[in-house]
Design brief:
The chain is an alpha/beta fold. The chain contains 8 helices and 9 strands. The strands form 2 sheets. The chain has a 6-stranded mixed beta sheet with strand order 5-6-7-3-8-9, with helices on both faces. The longest helix is centred in the C-terminal third of the chain and has 16 residues, at about 180-195. The protein is globular, with a radius of gyration of 19 Å.
Length: about 240
């Protein structure tokens, strides 16, 4: 089966000092010459492939490149080294504010965000009631998005993204903000998507959730891929390294 995600030698570089400027000459210099003392690599030399229908949990401490990896797969970031090729569309639930405009109402934001992800107006019209019902915010449809609580923002974001028909779903810990009852509702929806053959990339610090959804794990530490294997093996090694 052909890979739907093909990551080879992937690396991305950030700069600790945001005020530092890169000269025009740097753009044409070699990678070694361009590297500065205040550069750091949240990910480097990462390679793996993903087949359609796999559910993969990304494991590691804070600051080890998990969210960066999802952003590279989603196309939000571009790599400085290597490549990431994604051969199917993605539905990203990476940042709850992504694609939402504070001053627009919930209604307008649903149409804007779903439209940006490729849904037609007719499709949104047909699913609008279901989106709002799932999010349980029917009383706030005409409220500016900026007035919603963090939990309500998660509800509407997940509700919109889970309606997309893209084959891959990227979830980056944002559901931890929601209340327990709604989080379980979201998880049942993820179960349904996986049963329908979707591919899942799931970042979480919750071991129970990782074991629930994922058969395979990627363990990132200090920007490197330490282990790619069964989720139980990945979690066992992580707990051995850092404790449960």
């Amino acid at each position: 089966m052909a890979a739907v995600i093909d990551v080879r030698g992937l690396g991305v570089r950030f700069r600790r000092n945001r005020g530092a400027r890169r000269s025009f000459k740097d753009l044409f210099a070699s990678r070694e010459r361009r590297t500065r003392p205040d550069d750091f690599w949240p990910l480097r030399d990462v390679s793996f492939q993903v087949e359609s229908g796999e559910a993969i949990g990304v494991v590691g401490r804070n600051g080890q490149g998990k969210s960066t990896l999802l952003k590279l797969v989603a196309g939000v970031l571009l790599p400085d080294e290597g490549s990431v090729r994604v051969h199917e569309g993605v539905a990203p639930l990476i940042e709850i504010t992504g694609g939402f405009v504070d001053d627009l109402t919930v209604r307008d934001n649903v149409y804007l965000t779903a439209g940006l992800h490729g849904m037609t107006r007719a499709q949104i019209d047909a699913r609008f009631g279901e989106i709002i019902d799932f999010a349980e915010i029917g009383d706030f449809v005409d409220t500016p998005y900026k007035h919603l609580s963090s939990g309500m923002k998660v509800r509407i974001a997940f509700s919109v993204i889970s309606q997309l028909e893209e084959p891959m779903l990227l979830v980056d810990e944002v559901l931890a903000v929601g209340d327990r009852g709604f989080r379980e509702k979201c998880y049942r929806r993820i179960d349904e998507l996986l049963a329908g053959g979707r591919t899942l990339f799931f970042v979480s610090h919750n071991e129970k959730d990782l074991r629930r959804f994922c058969a395979r794990g990627l363990y990132l530490d200090k920007g490197r891929l330490v282990l790619d294997g069964p989720i139980s093996d990945v979690l066992d090694l992580y707990n051995q390294d850092y404790g449960s």
